[in-house]
């Protein structure tokens, strides 16, 4: 390894940090098991879930966050009074029907 290469240094520090976090997480979960705060059966699952999340291997979590973000966006737009595309389409349809009814009305009154 070249000590003057900043990319290698950054990579090693990142790997070291990830390893340190994993070790600390395992230690803390073992302490929780010893103190009775955490069920031993759940400890390993907790560690794996957190490590998976740190690695970015959580598509379900990402999907859930995306859905929540969408709901929050929709709620914000509604609070601001901005209509959704569906509502605009419905209004356009109603306007088209009214315009058509108005165009047909004078023809009926002319006869």
Lay out the secondary structure.
Layout: H1 6-35, H2 40-55, H3 59-79, H4 85-110
Helix pairs in contact: 1-2
From the structure above, extract its key features.
single chain, 111 residues, mainly alpha, elongated
Give the structure's gist in a few sentences.
Helices cover 84% and strands 0% of the residues.
Describe the structure.
- There is one protein chain.
- This protein is an all-alpha fold and 111 residues long.
- It has a domain at 6-82.
- It has four helices and no strands.
- It has helices at 6-35, 40-55, 59-79, 85-110.
- Helix 1 (6-35) packs antiparallel against helix 2 (40-55).
- It is elongated and about 85 Å long.
- The N and C termini lie far apart (95 Å).
- The mean pLDDT is 80.
H/E order of the elements? HHHH
Q: Which outline best applies?
A: elongated
Poorly predicted tracts of residues: none
Counted by DSSP, the helix tally is 4
Specify the helix fraction band: over 70%
Return the structural class.
Answer: mainly alpha
Radius of gyration from CA coordinates: 30 Å
Compute the average pLDDT: 80
Topology, number of strands? 0
Largest sheet: none
Termini separation: 95 Å
Give the percentage of residues in beta strands.
under 5%
